[in-house]
Design brief:
Pfam families: Sina_RING (PF21362), Sina_TRAF (PF03145), Sina_ZnF (PF21361)
Protein name: RING-type E3 ubiquitin transferase
EC number: 2.3.2.27
Strand content: 25-35%
Shape: elongated
Number of strands: 17
Radius of gyration: 24 Å
Number of domains: 2
Pathway: Protein modification; protein ubiquitination
Bound molecules: zinc ion
CATH superfamily of the largest domain: Apoptosis, Tumor Necrosis Factor Receptor Associated Protein 2, Chain A
GO molecular function, one term: ubiquitin protein ligase activity
Distance between the termini: 51 Å
C-alpha cells in the first residue's frame, strides 16, 4: 500500500511510463499465448500476409523477452539480437551466448521492420487496425480495445482485462464492496485519526446506468497537511467518462463541503488522479470538526450521487446530427 505521498508530485510521470511498458509485458488473462511467443496476431499474419513476412516478424521478436523489437535494436558480436529494454538489463553480457555484448546496433533489421505492416495486437479483442510496424506500438498504447489495468489502489496488481472481467476480479480477489444504484451514503470511521500513515484507503464499486464506477477514499499527507480524499473513477475510456458527473458531500456539526466533478477514466492510474487532486479533499482538522466529539475519532459521512449528462448542445456535448 502506498500512502506516502511526499514524493507524489514527481512520480506520476514515472508511473505512466511503467504503465505503457507494462502493456507489452502483461498478457490479457483470458487469452492464451499462441505458439508461446506472446503474439496474438500471428495467426492473422500468416493467413493474411505473404508467408515470408511471418518469419521476418519472428526475427523482430526479442529472443529474450518475446516482445516486438523497436529501434534501437541491438546485437552481440555473434549476431544475437535483443531489444533495448533487455540490453539495459543484460549488463553487457549477451543473454543468448553469455559473451560480452558491446554496443552494436542491428540497422539491417531496423530497416526491414520499416517495410512491415501488421495488425494491432488487440485484433482478437476487436481492433481492425493494420499498421506500419513503427507506428504499431504507439497505436497499441492508445488503442481503445486494449485491456484495462486493475483499478485497485495501492497494490501491485498486474491483472488486466476488459471491464466485466475486472469487476469480477475486484469482487472475488480484492473483496471489494459492490453497490447498485446512483446514490450512496458512506461512513468512514477511524479510531485513531492522528496516524495518517496507517490510515486505510477504501474502494467501493458502483453499478448504475449499465456502467461501473470506483469510489476511492483514502488518507495521505499533502505536503505537511494530513488529508482525506474521495474521488470517482469510471470503468471505461475517457471519452465515455465525460458523459457522467458526480457529486460528493461531506459534513457534520453544521458545516459541509460539496464537490462536483467528472469521473476520471481508470485509464488514468489511481495515483495520477490522486496527485492531480481531482476530487474532494478534506484536511484532517476539518474532518475532525465534521466528526464532532473530542477529536479522538474520525467519523466522516460522505454522500454522493452519479448522474448522466444530458447530451445536448447547451450542455457542451454535441450530437453530430444537431450541430450545423
Ligand atoms: Zn527483450
Ligand atoms: Zn550472443
Ligand atoms: Zn488497436
Ligand atoms: Zn487486481
Amino acid at each position: 500500500m502506498e500512502l506516502d505521498s511526499l514524493d507524489c508530485m514527481t512520480s506520476s510521470d514515472v508511473i505512466d511510463d511503467d504503465e505503457i511498458l507494462s502493456h507489452s509485458h502483461h498478457q490479457f488473462p483470458s487469452l492464451s499465448k499462441p505458439h508461446g511467443n506472446g503474439d496474438y496476431s500471428n495467426s492473422v499474419v500468416s493467413s493474411a500476409v505473404h508467408p515470408s513476412t511471418t518469419s521476418v516478424h519472428e526475427l523482430l521478436e526479442c529472443p529474450v523477452c518475446a516482445n516486438s523489437m523497436y529501434p534501437p535494436i541491438h546485437q552481440c558480436h555473434s549476431g544475437h539480437t535483443l531489444c533495448s529494454t533487455c540490453k539495459t538489463k543484460a549488463h553487457n553480457q549477451c543473454p543468448t551466448c553469455r559473451q560480452e555484448l558491446g554496443d552494436i546496433r542491428c540497422l539491417a533489421l531496423e530497416k526491414v521492420a520499416e517495410s512491415l505492416e501488421l495488425p494491432c495486437k488487440y485484433v482478437t479483442l476487436g481492433c481492425p487496425e493494420i499498421l506500419p510496424y513503427y507506428s504499431k506500438l504507439r497505436h497499441e498504447s492508445i488503442c481503445i480495445f486494449r485491456p484495462h489495468n486493475c483499478p485497485y489502489a495501492g497494490s501491485e496488481c498486474s491483472v488486466v482485462g476488459d471491464i466485466p472481467f475486472l469487476v469480477a476480479h475486484l469482487r472475488d480477489d480484492h473483496k471489494v464492496d459492490m453497490h447498485s444504484g446512483c446514490t450512496f451514503n458512506h461512513r468512514y470511521v477511524k479510531s485513531n485519526p492522528q496516524e495518517v500513515e496507517n490510515a486505510t484507503w477504501m474502494l467501493t464499486v458502483f453499478h448504475c446506468f449499465g456502467q461501473y464506477f470506483c469510489l476511492h477514499f483514502e488518507a495521505f499527507q499533502l505536503g505537511m497537511i494530513p488529508v482525506y480524499m474521495a474521488f470517482l473513477r469510471f470503468m471505461g475510456d475517457e471519452i465515455e467518462a465525460r458523459n457522467y458527473s458526480y457529486s460528493l458531500e461531506v459534513g457534520g456539526n453544521g458545516r459541509k463541503i460539496i464537490w462536483e466533478g467528472t469521473p476520471r477514466s481508470i485509464r488514468d492510474s489511481h495515483r495520477k488522479v490522486r496527485d492531480s487532486h481531482d476530487g474532494l479533499i478534506i484536511e484532517r482538522n476539518m474532518a475532525l470538526l465534521f466528526s464532532g466529539g473530542e477529536r479522538k475519532e474520525l467519523k466522516l459521512r460522505v454522500m454522493g450521487r452519479i448522474w448522466k449528462e444530458q447530451q445536448n448542445p447547451e450542455g457542451g456535448v454535441c450530437i453530430p446530427t444537431l450541430c450545423s
